[in-house]
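Holo prediction. Input below; ligand is flavin mononucleotide.
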Amino acid sequence: MRLAHAGGIAPATMSAAPKPFSVGPVRVDPAIVLAPMEGVTDRAFRTTIRALGGCGLAVTEFVSSEGLTRDVKDAWHMAELDPNEHPVSIQIYGRNPERMAAAARECQALGADIIDINLGCPSKNVTSGCSGSALMREPELARRIFDAVYDAITVPLTVKMRLGWDDNALNAPIIARSAQDAGAQMITVHGRTKVDMYRVPARWEPIRRVREAITVPLLCNGDIVGAATATAALAASGADGIMVGRAVMTDPWTIARIHAHFAGVPFAEPTLDDRRHLLHAYVEKLVVQEGKSRRIVSKLRKTIGSFSTGLRNAARLRQSISAIDGAPEAHKLLDAFFDDLASRGEMPQPWHEDVVTGADDDGAEEAVTGS
Ligand SMILES: Cc1cc2nc3c(=O)[nH]c(=O)nc-3n(C[C@H](O)[C@H](O)[C@H](O)COP(=O)(O)O)c2cc1C
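Structure of the complex:
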C-alpha cells in the first residue's frame, strides 16, 4: 500500500488514534514520544518541541554510564533537565551492570521520571565498546544490566532497541520479553536492524512480534514523519504509541501536527512568523543551557540549519550561521533572513512527504490524500 498524505487533517476514518497510557506512575498523554537523538535532543531542543504541543514524553540524548560514574562534565551536562519538562526520560548506555545501575540512580536523582536503556545505537563508538545494539547479541549481559538498573531505581525502567543485529537475528521479541521480566515497563522498537543502519526503510510489521511477546506498552519507531506514516506504523506494529525522531529536526511541528490529526482538530500550519519566533526562542534557550561555552555556536549552526529546511535561501542562512560567533549575531542573522522572506511574501514549503511505501496484496499502488 502506498499512501501519499499531503498534510492537514486526514479523514477520521483513516486512523485509530493511539490512546494515552501509563508507564508505572507516568502518564504518557498523548502517546507520541520525542526520540532520543545524540547531539540533538538536548534541553533546549526538547523544551522547544514540547512547547509546540502533542508530545507526551521526551527522551534525552543517550548519556554514557561510564561518563556519569567517572564524573565526566559533558555526561552530566547531557543529563540536565529543565524543571518544566516532565515527564521526561533519561537514556543511558553502557555494558557494565554496576556502572549502569549507579548511573541510573544518579539520573533518577536529577529528576528523571523514567530511565531508558539504550540497546539500539549502531554507531561504532558505542558498539565497539559493546553497548548500544551490540548488547542484543549478548542477551545474558543485557539481562544482568536490566536487573541491576531495575534494582537501583524506583522510577520506571524502559528499554529501546532495534529489531535485532541483522536479519538472521531478529531477536527483539526475546530481548523485550527479558526486559519485561526484569521489570521494564515500556519497550520501544526502531524497525531496523543494526546492520541496516539507516540504509533501508524502517519495517514496522516485525515489531508486531514484540507486541505479541510483551504486555507492557510498546512504542514503534522509524520513518514516522506525519499522520499517514504514524497511522500505518501503528496499524502494522500493533504498538500503543509512536516515537518520532529525525522528522522533528527539520520540521519541529511534526509531533504537534500528528497529534492534531489523531485528536481530530484542525492544525494551523506554522507561519513564517511562527518559525521566526521559534528560532529566536531556541537561541535564547541555548544561551541559558550553554552559558558562555563555545558549544553554543556549533549547536546553533546545526539546529538553525535543520530547522530552516524548506525555506527559500535556507542554504545561504546555513552558510552565514556557520561564521557566527555567538547568540547576538544569530538573532541578527535570523531577523535579516526572515525580513527578507517576508518582503517577498514567501511561504514555507512542506518539509516531509508523508508517504508509506510497500506493495498492496495485489501489488497495486493506492494513493490517499488527506484534506
Ligand atoms: C542524530 C541522531 C542521534 C541519535 N541518537 C540516539 C540516541 O542517543 N539514543 C537512541 O536510542 N537512539 C538514537 N538515535 C535513533 C533515534 O532515536 C531513532 O530511533 C531513529 O532515528 C529512527 O527514528 P526516526 O526515523 O523517527 O528518526 C539517533 C538518531 C539520530 C538521527
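Confidence is low (pLDDT under 50) at residues 1-14, 359-371. That is the main takeaway for now.
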